[in-house]
Specification:
alpha/beta; Rossmann fold; 9-stranded mixed sheet; 46% helix
Length: 653
C-alpha cells in the first residue's frame, strides 16, 4: 500500500460511522488525533500530511490495523447495499459525541436504532435534518447554565453530498433543501439542510439549530423533515413501503404521501392508501410534551395543501385536531395516530398510559409497546466488552440468554476489577472537568439526564439533613455525580440545574457531590462505566421508558429507581433496587415521602456495598444475567422488525 492508497483507505474508514461502535476503530482515530478524539475522523484524516502518511506506512502495527478494518468493512457490505424498504424519521440522531445532531434520549435512541438495524441487516434508512449549530454546548456561568452554539459544516461531521435537492412548499414560497448522507454501518441516514443559496436569509435558518427558535421555526422544520424527507427518498430512487414516525415531529410526511396517492381526486381514498405503511411511536406520557400548533399559526401552511388538492382546509385540519382542544390546536401525535396502521409506546407501562391518554384517537386504543433498548457495542466499555467477548462469546450483544447465563463463570475478582477500572476513569474525568476528587473506592451514585422538572434532579434535597449526614460519613463514603442539560427555554429546569450546581460547590456537599457540565455522549460513557449505582427519580408514570439505566446495567452498574418506564417491567427484586412510591395526592407531600424512600434505599445500598461486598458483586452478576437479554437495541429492533415492520410491509404491499 502506498501513500495515496493509505489516504483513500483512511477516508473510507472515516466516512462509515461503524467507528462509533468499534473500540478498535475509535482507538485508531484517537491515535491520529493526538490521543483523544475531539473531531470527526473525516477532519482528522484531512489534516494528515504526506510526511505523516509515509511514517504510518512504516508502522507495521498501524498498517495491520488498517488492513483488518478495511477487510471488516468490505465483509460488512458483502454483495453491496440493498435499497431500503423502511424509512425511520426522527428530528435528531445521536451517533457520536463528535457529531452534535442530538439533544437527549430521543436522538440517542434513534442512533442506537440505526446501529442495531445495521447489525441485523434491516433494509432501513434514517431521515432527519442537518443542524449546522446542532444542540448547544453547556457551560456554568455564575452558577447557571449558559449555552454556546458552535457552527459546523456537514462535511466536517462526515456527511456526504448526494447531489440531490428537494423543494418543500410553504406559504407563498418553496424552500430548497440539500440532501446529505451519512453511512452508519450497512444503513444510511439522510439529513436535509436548508442553508443553500437558493433560499432567502430567513429560510436558510430553518435548519440552523435543534429545538430552538419560536413555534413557527419548529413548524417549518417539521414540514421540511416530513415533506422534504419523502421527496428526498423519491429523488434517490428508493421505493420505500413503510414509514416509521419516531414521535410526531415528522408527521407532515403524510401530506406528501397523500398527494402521491391522489389526494386531489379523492382525499379519503388517499388516506386509506397511506395508512397500511405508516407506523407511529409515541415517546411521552406527558401531554405537554406533545407537539401542538395553534390554529392561527398552522392554518396558512395547511392551506397550501388544501389549495393543491382543491379541498376545504378544514378537512386537513381534522386529521390533526387536538383531542381535547380541537378548535385551537393541531396535535402531531393525533395526526400520526389517525393515519397510522400501527402504533406503540416504548415500555409496557408507557403503552398502558398511552392507550389511556389517546383513547378514542385513531388507533390510540390499540397502542402496543416495544420497550426501548441500547446498542451494546456503543455503550459497554472496551474492557468489559473484551471480557464478555472472551467468556460469553459474541452473542451477548444481541441479548442471547445462553450467552448471558455464562456470566456465572465471571469471578468476583474479575467483576470488581472491571468496576474499579471504570471508577478510576470516572475519577479522572471528574478531576479534569470540575477539580473535585472522587475516591474510586467510595460508592459512586450517578444521575444524568435532561433537567426536566418531572425527573426531579433535586428530590434528595427535600431531606437535606439526611443527605448531609450521608455525605459526611467517612466510614462509608458515597459520592454523587450529576450531569445533564436543561432546554434553553425551560426556566424551571434551569432553576433545578442551578440548585444542583450550587449544592455541588457547597460545604454541605463535603466534596462528595459533583455536577459535571456539558453532558453528552462522551461524558455519559464514562459515567456508565464508573458509577456503581444509577439513580432515577421521575414522577411515576411520566418516564416513558428511559435508557440511561440500561446502559449503566450493561456496564455492571446497579439501578436504584422509581418503578417507571423499562425498570417497572424488568426489576426482579435482586437486580437492583426499587424506590417506594407515595400515594399522596399533594405533589409536595409525595415528593417528601419519595425523597425519604430514596434515602432509605440508598442507606441500605451503602450498607451492603461497604459491609458485604460479596453480596454486592453477586447482585451485579445477577443483574447482568437477568437484564442483559432484555436491554439491548438488537432485541428492540428485532421486535420492531417482527411485530411492527413485517406486518406493515405486508399491508403496504
Amino acid at each position: 500500500m502506498d501513500s495515496p492508497a493509505l489516504r483513500d483507505a483512511l477516508v473510507r474508514l472515516a466516512a462509515n460511522h461503524r467507528w462509533t461502535w468499534s473500540y478498535s476503530l475509535r482507538n485508531f482515530w484517537e491515535k491520529l488525533d493526538g490521543g483523544r478524539l475531539t473531531r470527526h475522523p473525516t477532519v482528522v484524516v484531512g489534516e494528515v500530511s504526506s510526511e505523516q502518511l509515509n511514517d504510518l506506512l512504516g508502522d507495521h502495527e498501524f498498517m495491520a490495523m488498517v488492513t483488518a478494518e478495511v477487510a471488516a468493512l468490505d465483509d460488512m457490505f458483502g454483495d453491496g447495499l440493498v435499497d431500503p424498504q423502511i424509512a425511520y424519521f426522527s428530528p435528531e440522531f445521536g451517533l457520536s459525541d463528535v457529531i452534535p445532531q442530538y439533544s437527549g434520549g430521543l436522538g440517542i435512541l434513534a442512533g442506537d436504532h440505526m446501529k442495531a438495524a445495521s447489525d441485523l441487516t434491516l433494509p432501513l434508512v434514517g431521515v432527519g435534518l442537518f443542524y449546522r449549530q446542532g444542540f448547544f454546548r453547556q457551560r456554568i456561568e455564575d452558577g447557571r447554565q449558559a449555552e454556546d452554539y458552535p457552527t459546523f459544516t456537514a462535511q466536517s461531521l462526515g456527511a456526504q453530498d448526494t447531489d440531490v435537492t428537494v423543494k418543500v412548499p410553504l406559504p407563498g414560497r418553496e424552500v430548497v433543501a440539500r440532501v446529505w448522507r451519512m453511512d452508519v454501518g450497512r444503513v444510511r441516514l439522510l439529513l436535509l439542510d436548508t442553508d443553500v443559496a437558493e433560499n432567502s436569509a430567513a429560510d436558510r435558518q430553518i435548519t440552523d439549530r435543534l429545538y430552538s427558535g419560536d413555534r413557527r421555526h419548529r413548524l417549518e422544520q417539521e414540514l421540511v423533515l416530513g415533506v422534504g424527507g419523502v421527496r428526498a427518498l423519491s429523488a434517490l430512487g428508493w421505493d420505500v413501503s413503510v414509514f416509521h414516525l419516531n414521535e410526531g415531529h415528522a408527521g407532515f410526511l403524510v401530506l406528501e404521501l397523500m398527494e402521491r396517492r391522489g389526494a386531489g381526486s379523492n382525499l379519503a381514498a388517499a388516506i386509506e392508501q397511506v395508512r397500511p405503511g405508516l407506523v407511529f411511536t409515541t415517546h411521552t406520557p406527558v401531554p405537554a410534551g406533545i407537539d401542538r400548533f395553534e390554529k392561527r399559526l398552522i392554518l396558512p401552511y395547511l392551506e397550501v395543501w388544501a389549495h393543491r388538492w382543491g379541498v376545504p382546509v378544514e378537512e386537513i385540519w381534522l386529521l390533526g385536531a387536538d383531542p381535547v382542544d380541537g378548535d385551537r390546536y393541531f396535535n402531531m401525535a393525533a395526526l400520526g395516530l389517525r393515519l397510522a396502521s400501527g402504533a406503540n409506546g416504548v415500555s409496557q407501562m408507557h403503552g398502558e398510559v398511552s392507550r389511556h391518554l389517546f383513547a378514542g384517537v385513531g388507533i390510540g386504543d390499540e397502542i402496543t409497546s416495544v420497550t426501548n433498548g441500547v446498542h451494546a457495542r456503543t455503550w459497554v466499555s472496551a474492557d468489559t466488552q473484551a471480557v464478555f467477548d472472551r467468556l460469553l462469546g459474541d452473542k451477548w450483544t444481541i441479548g442471547d440468554r445462553e450467552a448471558w447465563d455464562r456470566v456465572e463463570i465471571l469471578s468476583d475478582a474479575a467483576i470488581s476489577g472491571l468496576r474499579h477500572i471504570g471508577a478510576l476513569r470516572l475519577s479522572e474525568l471528574v478531576s479534569d472537568r470540575t477539580g473535585h476528587t472522587l475516591d474510586p473506592d467510595s460508592l459512586v451514585v450517578g444521575f444524568a439526564r435532561r433537567f426536566a422538572t418531572y425527573k426531579r434532579a433535586t428530590l434528595l434535597f427535600h431531606h437535606m439533613e439526611r443527605l448531609a449526614a450521608m455525605l459526611a460519613d467517612d466510614a462509608r463514603p458515597i459520592h454523587f455525580v450529576f450531569a445533564g442539560k436543561a432546554h434553553p427555554a425551560d426556566k424551571p429546569g434551569k432553576r433545578l440545574l442551578a440548585e444542583v450546581a450550587a449544592f455541588s460547590n457547597s460545604s454541605v456537599a463535603n466534596g462528595r457531590f459533583t455536577f459535571v457540565p456539558d453532558y453528552g455522549i462522551g461524558i455519559a460513557r464514562v459515567m456508565y462505566e464508573g458509577c456503581d449505582i444509577w439513580l432515577n427519580t421521575p414522577v411515576r408514570p411520566r418516564e416513558a421508558s428511559g435508557t440511561s439505566g440500561e446502559k449503566a446495567a450493561l456496564n455492571g452498574g446497579l439501578n436504584c429507581s422509581i418503578l417507571d418506564g423499562w425498570w417497572a417491567e424488568m426489576f426482579d427484586g435482586r437486580n437492583g433496587w426499587a424506590i417506594a412510591t407515595s400515594d399522596a395526592a399533594d405533589p409536595a407531600r409525595r415528593d417528601r415521602e419519595e425523597a425519604a424512600a430514596a434515602l432509605d434505599t440508598l442507606d441500605a445500598i451503602v450498607a451492603e456495598y461497604h459491609g458485604d461486598p460479596v453480596a454486592f458483586v453477586g447482585r451485579i452478576r445477577h443483574a447482568w444475567r437477568s437484564l442483559g437479554p432484555q436491554v439491548t437495541a438488537a432485541r428492540m429492533v428485532a421486535e420492531y422488525r417482527d411485530r411492527i415492520y413485517t406486518p406493515a410491509l405486508s399491508r403496504a404491499r
